[in-house]
Request: fold
Amino acid sequence: MNNKNTKEIIFEQVDKCYGKNYVIKDFNLQIKDGERIILLGPSGCGKSTTLRIIAGLEDINSGNLYMSGKRVNDVPCGERNVAMVFQNYALYPHMTVAQNITYGLKAHKIEKGEIKKRLDEALEMLDLVEYAQRTPKQLSGGQRQRVALARAVVKRSPYFLLDEPLSNLDAQLRLHARKELVKIHERYHQTLVYVTHDQIEAMTVGHRIALLNKGELQMIDHPSVIYNRPANIFTAKFIGSPSMNIVDAKYGSGKLWIGKQSVHIPEIWCKQILCAETENLLLGIRPEHLIFSDKQEQDTLCATVKYVEDYGNRYGVYLEVEGIELIALCEDMVPQCGKNVYINLNPEKIHLFKKENGKSIGYPKEIPMLMSIHMNEVNVNKKEK
Ligand SMILES: Nc1ncnc2c1ncn2[C@@H]1O[C@H](COP(=O)(O)OP(=O)(O)OP(=O)(O)O)[C@@H](O)[C@H]1O
Reply:
């Protein structure tokens, strides 16, 4: 198994059930040393349970869990050396901020000077110096959340586990807090596992996103790959807002047919991916990749505008093509309800899935993916490199 000096976490064929109900089933996941991994998925998909299994707060029914190369199935929570931040912060109401932050260190008999050093550093880093002597009820939600983060940071644990730590904050504080969190991680390089159902948080904090549905891993990859190359319909629809449009389509003679209308598809798709005529396809196209056109051309689709939503900075336009509803995003022109419009599909931005199992049929190599991975590159094993 892996090196004990790394901070890897490995789930190997893990099952967890409550009674007869499986929460996660045959779960395999390898979290790298120093990685920020996001567990994302709809409510009840098993995110918190997965995190609690790592923390040792839940037993597993079968399979193995390894941390730092050691099988930890039977290692109790207190011996796993994890720092955890919960959604409700779980602060002690009768203790001051400073006492809350240092309580765990005192319990572990860390030397006084070292406790003070870590406390001062955490107060400074999380902008809490002036609140050190207040109790939690004298703090705002954002300040409490920072205390919970500080308490986890001072532990200097190799594993940092966070269960929706920002969900009680308003939008602006969330943004600020997630930047702080990334900064903390870049300073200490813990292996960070973060549960959220917020896509933006997942995309911005994670080196990789593990997307779960009903206890099964749907896809794990860099945020850009998840967005631009979804492995299946579930991933395609879950990531992105408004959701990706998915419509029945057929391929034949170099064209993609949606009902009686058709569009040409670039030759590389035909050669590399769509080798034979394929009846049972699902075409995916994101709302931002439906482009309005003012005239009918060879490859435009004719659609009727059904409804328009104003989002302030752009419009969501609900369209009907061949009896199928699509949603498009547009920034400038506001099509009127009831009018017919022409739309183009950006051929570099289409996704095709097999209808029988919802899996992607793949992408031609030449089609570029707008990669932002370099911004979010996994910066692991820094010291060893
Ligand atoms: N102690 C328990 N006993 C029985 N069922 C449980 C228990 N804890 C969780 N579950 C069930 O396990 C499933 C997964 O729960 P979990 O909390 O892991 O989901 P989640 O993805 O974190 O959801 P949310 O985003 O709503 O917090 C749910 O169906 C839940 O009802």
Observations:
- The pocket of adenosine-5'-triphosphate is lined by residues 18, 23, 41, 43-49, 197 (CB under 6 Å).
- Confidence is low (pLDDT under 50) at residues 371-385.
